[in-house]
Design a protein that fits this description.
Layout: E1 2-4, E2 10-15, E3 18-21, E4 24-27, E5 34-36, H1 38-52, E6 58-63, E7 66-67, H2 74-84, E8 86-88
Antiparallel strand pairs: 1-8, 2-5, 2-6, 3-4, 6-7
Amino acid sequence: MKITTRNRNLGYGWSNQPVQTPSGLTIEEPQEMVYGGPRSVLRERAYAIRLNGGNSWAEALFVGHRRVRYPWRTGQILMDLIGDCSVEVELEDEA
């Protein structure tokens, strides 16, 4: 799916909440917290980075309320979006 700087259906979420799983402690899956355009997403991401600097945390990018695959690429996706005005992303429930 191609997203552009004109998209207003982007979402972003982060979590620093630890949860116990059978394999040990992990960070809770992020839920969508901000919904809007690239500026809203970048503003929330900057806040999350400032707040969680040096700690374990997780982030996720959403398009139309669907999670983007490979959350560790969120920063690169956003930088590519701003630099090139568009970027291709793969959503989690797409094959």
